[in-house]
Each structure stands twice: as structure tokens, then as C-alpha cells.
Amino acid sequence: MQHQLLIGYDDRHTFLNRLSGSTKLLCFVGLSIIGMMTYDTRYLLGIMVLSLILFHFSRIKFRDVSFILSVILGFSVLNLVMVYVFAPHYGVTIYGTEHLLLGHHAAYFNLTTEQLFYEFNLLLKYTFMVPLALIFLMTTNPSEFAASLNKIGVSYRISYSVAIALRYIPDVQSDYRTISLAQQARGFEISKKAKFMTRVRGGVQILLPLIFSSLDRIEVISQAMELRRFGKGKRRTWYMAQRFKRNDYLALLIVGLLIVLGIALFRVNGGRFWNPFKA
Amino acid sequence: MTAPIISFKDFSFQYNSQTEPTLRHINLDIYPGEKVLIAGPSGSGKSTLGRCLNGLIPQSYPGTVSGQATVAGQDIRHSSIFDLSLNVGTVLQDPDSQFVGLTVVEDMAFSLENDQQSQDAMQTATQQWAQTLDLQHLLTHRPQELSGGQKQRVAMAGVLIDNSKVLLFDEPLASLDPASGKASMALIDRLTHSQELTVVIIEHRIEDVLQQPIDRLVVMQDGEIVANDRPETILRESLMAQLGLREPLYLSALKLAGIPLRDCRHLDDLTHLSAPNLTPTLQHWTQGVTLNAPVAHTDPLLDIQGLSFGYTPDHPILHDLSLTLHRGEMISLVGQNGVGKSTLSNLITGFLTPQAGQLTFAGRSLNQQSVKERADHIGYILQDPNQMISKTLIYDEVAAGLVLRGIDEDTIHDRVLATLKVCGLYEFRHWPISALSFGQKKRVTIAAILVLQPEMLILDEPTAGQDLAHYTEMMTFLEKINRDQQMTIMLITHDMHLMLEYTDRTIVLGGGNVLMDAAPADVLTNQAIIERASLAKTSLYTLAEQHQLDPTEFVAKFVQAEREVRACNTNS
């Protein structure tokens, strides 16, 4: 079996599934923006817990997402390390105090509580969105994607291209497989047995037919769409669009309040940072 | 007399990218309620004519137009694709590539969404058409996971939902197995009457379309209409072969038996066909032909023992399959879509690994050999040549396999040129591949495999999408390498003509195993197998039954007589 790179939608019969796609998208975008802006640890911990609770209720199985989670975790850790390497004193600059844990005051690489605290905030920011993004992707029917994008103001042509791209990923994958095997049969070695450069060259051999066959697909599909009047009007309706129900308004209200709370905290803290060191 | 719904008057069209007009002086009137078949070889302009009907010409394919063409009263030069699409619904050749919706119901509603209809209206319309086309249980499925016939019904629903009065089919049979093709033709006939449609079918497989009544047959050649009449009249004049089209099999049989076509009535409808002394003449002909003993191939080449495979253990696709292929055989592998034909060839070529079973090739076990090692003995040619071609020049493409095997340049040069000669591509050796026709590209892919000197070839639908001339060319070529080089050839196909006329042995797959392994004439006259493998009764079978002949014997004798005629033609 190949790795489950793509995230699969499945109707898991939860209240999250029943929310409209637009609601979930708006909530996700709203929370992400406020979460990216604030450095208030209490607030970040709050939404982290909230998103973990939601993730639990979404009934998404951990093993379905373990691969993508490990990738994200890997990148986050790498990022945190790089932040430390390039700016080990940034925490001190922000919070204005220095509590030395390791190393010397004058050394470039020393460890301060402030730096650790700052990087902890960063980690929270990287990770709180992940469960939310997964919930959005895995509980929203792909058919509703385009409709949701369109509803929040993205032009329907762009929204539909996103949907079409999603629809074609499996086709292109199977094309890739077929072409790759046919090339291997002629002697292009692209398995791990071959040297790196040979594999790269083999990959290029597959790319050419893949691009041509994909271009053919695009031509046919755009004709088929035109023949059914895609692009005629300034707007279009969506068969799968869901009307807002009570829960949708409720969800938007809660998220709205959370955002207001986040903005209020900027005031209280006198900026984006919450500083526990000032005491 | 009502006014024609489609009318061409001295109409010519030249694509901007071409130096010659593709359509010349077309005069054609099609009346409401008519069912018209437009036939012709590749490049005859029949698809271009179709594009004029749905407005793709001149909107999406710009070019020079002269003369007049109106569809439902609208001049095609001044109406947009959008306007015309309300009158003409188009079902493209490959339903797979035209699906836009993620589910069946969304695809059906696609044009209504573009018309900004309300969700309630869309639900009512999709319900209604799902019922008419028997799609109720498939609405939430992905269109890609349906069978060929179901896909076509979804594509039809997606255009019929506009209530268009003209329905245009571009090669509707090309991607269907014989049984679904037959069902699809029957459905089109039913809709023509119940929905009062005008139907235009572009197709070169005339016999299959004629299974249902057709009002008019329009034959095109080199951009002109060369025949436009009731099918019976055209069939009687026996013009098909001259026009590059395949004659219905029963017609060839009548001619072989020496029955003058001018004496026949209902030539286009086998069930009502009659002629003076038809039965005695056919019986007399059958008695006069002695069946030759079949050529026996006894040298085993590929031996398969107890082969099992499934993507998941509880759903085996192949289960305990055993089979022996002999050197020099020409085999057809048939069966319903999804029955494991591709799986079997993928197991042979090593693309897939079996859960159990032994593969032996010329006495050596294949089980431990890699894809590349097996490819030295067994060549596999995909249906779509574009998926195989990775170079821009013919010479390079054919040489690629040898270059990768590290063979010295002189040997490569000699072998490539020799192979190009065998494949009739020698004159093109410096050409870019993009300048070749589909059939020629296909031959390049075969050359690229033959140059590796395999002992066996597996070809997936070698003749799909090709007209009679290219089909015959391709098959004559394969027959030649089969005969001259004792090449073992296995063809995966839905084409019953191909099975009958060119192969000596047919293997029918079904239920994870071999359903039948016999001569093609035996397979195609076995009612139970025909049904289980989604094949269809050929007109020869029906003809034999009607005239108290033994179908298997009649078909076998017909095939033998045809091959003798063909051998004479090739030798002279």
C-alpha cells in the first residue's frame, strides 16, 4: 500500500460533519488569524485545548493522520531549533528580563527562561491549528469545498478549479503509476536499487508523458464544462451547498466571541505579548 | 413538411492550424425526430462536423467558415456555445474525462448550477432523470467507480437535464464492452421516442449501431459527404469497404455464400432479412466448406500454476488460476471490465506480486525476476501510446530500451533500423513523434518493445479508436510478426471482430478464474459465456440460428473462408 498522503473525507456522523462547509472554513480562518497574531500563552493554551476537544469529538482516527502529523511535528521542531540557532536572545529582547538557565550571560548560545517561553509560544501557534485544519478537511464533503470557498467571496471559477484539482488527483496518481511501470519495463530503473542521479533521470522520463496526458485531460474537461455552460453567468448555484442552520450560527457566534476576547487581550496586555516575567 | 432542425448549405470549414479545409461543401438537412448515423474513417471530418453542431466550431476552434449552417434556427457563426448547448446536448467519447462533478448527482446538476437554478429545482430535475435513466442508486457514487454503461448514462443525464432536443454522441461505443454497447444503443433508441429527440451518432462501428433502427446513414470521406441515404440502400450497394468502413459480418457472410444483395429485403435489419432461397443457399455453402485442422501449438512458453492475487485478502481478484500459453500462439484475453484482465497481465510482467502461484517462462521461474528482467522476454504495450512515449524523436524512442541496457552504439543502430523496417516506420525514423497519427504512435511503442527482442507480446486493446484501414494495417502487422518470428501474442480486447478474425484461441476470464479457453468461434456461440463475459451475440450467430445451421460450425467456417480471402489479398 502507498502512503495515505491525501486526507480522506468520511462521513463520521458527528455534529462537526453536519456543520456547513462555509461555517467550518470561516471558523478555521478566523481562529487561525487571531492565533497567529497573539502571543498570549493563556489564550493559546485555551484554543489548543478547545481544538483538541473538537478533534476528539470529530472521531477522526489517530492512525489515519499519524503520517501527516509526524511530518508537521518534524517541521515544527526543525523550525524551533532554527529560531534558537539564529536568535537565541530573542526572548530576552521581547520580555525585557533575563533568567539564565544554562551558559554564560555574554555567550551567544545560552539558554534563558524567556527564550524557552517564547519558543513554547511558537510551538503552540504551530500546533493548535493542526487539529482544526484536519477537522475542516476530514469532515467537509469535498463536494462542498468549492461551494464554501465561493460563499466566503472567492470567485466561483477559482473555487471550481480547486474542486477539479481535488477530483483529478487520483486520476493523475494512477496515470503516474501506469507510466512509471511501463518505463521501468523498458529498463528505466527508478527503484532504490539505482543511483540517485539515475533515479532523477528516470523521474524526468515519466514526467514528460504525464504532463502530456494531463494537458489532454485539461483540454477535454474544459470543453466538457463549456458545453454545459460553465462560465456563462457571473454567479452560479451549488447543488451541494448547505444552508446555515442553528448550529452554524452558534458556531460562528462562539468563534466570533473568541476572536473578540483575543483582541481584548491585546488591550489588557498592552500589545501582542503576555509577559509573565514582569510581575 | 417540417423545417429541418439542423441544416448545412454548401458549408466548408478550415481550421486555422490546417492548410486544407477539413469540411468541403457540406449539404445536409436533419429533421426533428430523425436518428442519423454519421460514419467515416479517421480524418474524414466526421468529428469536425460534430463540433459544428455543438458550437465548439468556430468558438473554441477558430477557423474559416464559408456557406451556411443553422442549428435549431441559429446560425452557428453568431451563436455562442452556451446558446447552442441549450439545444444540442453532447456526450463526448470518453465519459471518464468529461465528468466534472465529484458525485453522480453533482455531475447531473452541473449545467443547472451554471444556469443559477435553485437547489429545489435541481433536486426535482436530478430525481426525474435519475429515474428515467435508472441511476437512483448511484447518485452519491463517484462517477469514476461506475461501469462503462453506467458512466455513459450519467453523461447522458448531464445533458438531457437541459431538455435539449438534439442529442449528439461522439463515438458512444468506443469505451464500452459489447454487452453495454448493445444496451446503450437500445437506450438511445428508447429515448429518441419517449423524449422526442433528434439523435446524431458519430461512429465508425456501423454494425453495432444498426442493432437498433437508424433513419439515415451519412458517410463522410475526405471532408465530403459521399453517401446520404437509408442504411439499407447503402448496404445494398456494398460500398462500405470502398469507403473505408467495416461491413456488418452477416453481410460478408451473405456475399461469401454468393447471395446477391440486390435480391435481399431488410438488409439493415437482420431479424427481418429475407431473400429468395436464403436458407438452402446458406446451408449449401456451409456443407461445401471443410474445416481445416487447427494449427497445433505444443511448445509451452508461459506456464501459470495456482496464481492468486487480491488487493485485500478477502477480495481475491484471481484465485488459483492455471494456464499454459504456447510459443507462436495468437491469443485473445476477454472478460468483463474489472474481471482481472489487466491484473493478470500485470502479474505476468511483474508490476504486481502474486499472493500465491508459480510463473514459469520457457522453463525458467519468473518469480524472482524483476520488472526489468521480465521485460527482456515479455513486452507489454499499453492502450494509450501517449503513456509510453518519453522521447521526442522516433529513433531515440525505439533506441531507449537498448541504451539503458548498455548495449554498444553500432549494435543499437543496426537493431533499431531493422526494427523500424519491420514496423514500417523506417521512412519516418528522423521524424518527431508528435507528427505521427495515433496508429503510427502505437506502432512506435510496439517497435520500442520489439527492439528488445522479447518472445512474447501482451497488447492492451491494440486497435481501440482506429478505423478499418488502420485496424487492418495494425493486425496485418501483428499477424506477420506472429507468423514470421513465431512471436507469441496475447491481445486484451473487447472487440469481437478482432477475436474472431485474428486469434486462434480465446481465454475468457470471470469469477477470478478461467471461464472458458477455446477457439473464438466456440466462445462466441456459447450463450452462457457470452452473458457472463459481457460479450454479445454476433450477427453471424443470429444468422446461423435463423437458418437452422449449427452456429459454431457456421462461424468457424466463415472465419476460415474470410482468412483465406485475406491471405489471397495479402499475397497478391
UniProtKB/TrEMBL annotation, chain A:
GO cellular component, one term: plasma membrane
UniProt membrane topology term: Multi-pass membrane protein
Assigned keywords, A-Z: Membrane, Transmembrane, Transmembrane helix
InterPro entries, A to Z: ABC/ECF_trnsptr_transmembrane (IPR003339)
Location in or out of the cell: Membrane
Transmembrane regions: 21-37, 43-60, 67-87, 123-141, 249-268
PANTHER family: ABC TRANSPORTER PERMEASE, PROTEIN ABCI12, CHLOROPLASTIC
Name of the molecule in the record: Cobalt ABC transporter permease
Record organism: Levilactobacillus spicheri
TrEMBL record, chain B:
CDD domains: ABC_cobalt_CbiO_domain1 (cd03225)
Keyword Repeat (UniProt): yes
Keyword Ligase: no
Keywords: ATP-binding, Cell membrane, Membrane, Nucleotide-binding, Repeat, Translocase, Transport
SUPFAM superfamilies: P-loop containing nucleoside triphosphate hydrolases (SSF52540)
Bilayer disposition of the protein: Peripheral membrane protein
SMART domains named in the record: AAA
Biological function: Probably part of an ABC transporter complex. Responsible for energy coupling to the transport system.
Gene3D superfamilies given in the database record: P-loop containing nucleotide triphosphate hydrolases
Predominant place of localization: membrane
Subcellular localization, as worded in the UniProt entry: Cell membrane
Gene Ontology MF, one: ATPase-coupled transmembrane transporter activity
Domain ABC transporter: 6-247, 302-536
Record-level GO cellular component terms: ATP-binding cassette (ABC) transporter complex
InterPro entries per UniProt: AAA+_ATPase, ABC_Co_transporter, ABC_transporter-like_ATP-bd, ABC_transporter-like_CS, ABC_transpr_CbiO/EcfA_su, ECF_ABC_transporter_ATP-bd, P-loop_NTPase
Name under which the protein is recorded: Abc transporter
UniProt similarity note: Belongs to the ABC transporter superfamily.
